[in-house]
Amino acid sequence: MILQDTADQAALRAAVRELCEGFGNAYWRDLDLQRQYPEAFVKALTEAGYLAALIPEEYGGAGLGIAEAAVILEEINRSGGNAAACHAQMYIMGTVLRHGNDDQKRRYLPAIARGELRLQAFGVTEPNAGVDTLKTATTAKRRGDRYVVNGRKVWTSRVQHSDLMLLLARTAPPDPRDRTYGLSTFLVDLRDAPPGMIEVRPIRTLMNHETNEVVFSDLEVPAGNLIGEEGSGFRYILDGLNAERLLIAAECVGDGRFFIERAVAYARQRIVFDRPIGRNQGVQFPIARAHAAVEAADLMRRQGSGLFDLGKACAAEANTAKLLASEASWQAANVALDTLGGYGFAHEYDVERKFRETRLYITAPVPNNLILAYVGEHVLGMERSF
After folding, report:
1. What CATH class does 238-379 carry?
2. With contact defined as beta carbons under 8 Å apart, do 119 and 108 qualify?
3. Model confidence over 29-53: pLDDT tens digits?
4. Which residue from 209, 91, 95 is spatially nearest to 156, judged by alpha carbons?
5. CA–CA distance, 270 with 195 (Å, rounded to integer)
């Protein structure tokens, strides 16, 4: 297992870093103040081909692996940006690639790779279901050659900036013999929705993260937009979770390195009582410990990415990577805030912005307690805890 960048990955990292330099901290700072979407950045990232990293070359993508996609997202966050504005396209697209039919792949993947279509919205979570996805109540009822969708989703991010949505809806009641049966996955073309059939209600959050409640009222979706087999959608969603966990872990590693670099730089140059504060163990040791935590999380992320790209089982590694990386980035965020003191709370130093952004990943896209439950049951063999 390769636990450091290959030459190609190092070149990719340098190229992403160069692109990010054109969108410095002032750019992200202003967007945060005005609660705006980073349209120019996402456009540049798309035109450079980075959001098509996981799309095979036959469909116009780069044909890279999760390891390379992780490098892209990590470097965005390490540079001071926020990859959450566009990361979903990378792991949502995998559902179409692995479970879509040939017509769907030919129709959508090349256009996504060219940047003509955006697949950024993921409609799964519901107000009364949360992480208990099997309680999904949004329905999709077959009527001739169409499905009619009714229901509500929540925490559906970037829907205003997406052409397509991957939607999980119930097409049949649960089967007592198989609780996962009855949920289906659809690719919804948001551009085709007539007025009134999709209502988007923005949710203001701690950070600049365009997320929403979405209400569907008799929305018609062509039967040809059903992904895979009817009733098997829950398994398709699960199939993409390892990629999601690994990419989120990479973003957290990027955040962690951002915080540590800021803390180290400030500790070296800040003079108090005629000495740099970094000479004091009370400042230096917490930074060193946070660095160690981030590096350890990065190793687990690389291990999981390597297994994923080899087509081997990696659920334990992917979940553990997300757990460790989200906690390490939060540890580094607090260390940076402690090190900078009052300046850490100042908008112009960017720490408080990134502090808010990285806190999300302890809770989303899956709470760390559920990851602990997974490890306890499926890795350590203990009884189910919930």
Report:
1. mainly alpha
2. yes
3. 999 999 999 999 999 999 999 999 9
4. 209
5. 57
